[in-house]
Automatic annotation (TrEMBL):
Catalysed reactions, as listed in the record: a 2'-deoxyribonucleoside 5'-diphosphate + ATP = a 2'-deoxyribonucleoside 5'-triphosphate + ADP
Protein name as catalogued: Nucleoside diphosphate kinase
Natural source organism: candidate division WOR-1 bacterium RIFCSPLOWO2_02_FULL_46_20
SUPFAM superfamilies per the UniProt record, alphabetical: Nucleoside diphosphate kinase, NDK
Listed Pfam families: NDK
PANTHER family: NUCLEOSIDE DIPHOSPHATE KINASE, NUCLEOSIDE DIPHOSPHATE KINASE DDB_G0292928-RELATED
Protein family: Belongs to the NDK family.
SMART domains tied to this protein: NDK (SM00562)
UniProt GO MF annotations: ATP binding; metal ion binding; nucleoside diphosphate kinase activity
Enzyme class, first EC level, given as a word: transferase
Length: 147
């Protein structure tokens, strides 16, 4: 059972989502489930910040392609707050592979016909922190240490 805890999480609208103009729709979905968007800002990630963000994936076969993709254009970073914000944003996003993401989820509803970059990275529109620890670490990369 989920406890009703107030949390903050990092939601990213990745370069493919920004390029396709999906930011308003995604933010609307977040607000519709009662979560609050406390910060929202456009960024272009440096190589170093991208490596920080995805440091848990260092050494995996998709790591280099992922860094290339996440630095390929602007992204929109949001601090989302509310009850069970971490799990709720993950639920709104759906499965990592858009082909497996359920209808009604962001990745399921907006999956592109060509969802792979030239080196095989999955372009899946959004990112959401996967734990309290990740959320704190990831929010700090974009917004510094916030309360
Ligand atoms: N990714 C990929 N191929 C894979 C696994 C992941 O291209 O086999 C990319 C994809 O963009 C994903 C990101 O790497 O969103 C981070 O992977 P993770 O397993 O953390 O998935 P997420 O938490 O984003 O659902
Ligand atoms: Mg992840």
């Amino acid at each position: 059972m989920l406890l009703n805890v107030q949390e903050k999480t990092l939601l990213l609208i990745k370069p493919d989502g920004v390029a396709r103009g999906l930011d308003k729709e995604i933010v609307a979905r977040v607000k519709n489930v009662g979560l609050k968007v406390e910060r929202q800002e456009k960024f272009r990630l440096t190589e170093k910040s991208a490596a920080d963000l995805y440091s848990p994936h260092l050494g995996k076969k998709f790591y280099a392609g992922l860094l290339k993709f996440i630095t390929s254009g602007h992204l929109i970073a949001c601090v989302v707050a509310g009850e069970n914000a971490i799990a709720s944003v993950r639920e709104l996003m759906g499965a990592t592979d858009p082909r497996e993401a359920a209808a009604g989820t962001i990745r399921g509803d907006f999956k592109a016909e060509n969802m792979f970059t030239s080196d095989g990275t999955i372009k899946n529109i959004a990112h959401g922190s996967d734990s309290l620890e990740s959320a704190e670490r990831e929010i700090a990369i974009f917004f510094g240490r916030i309360k």
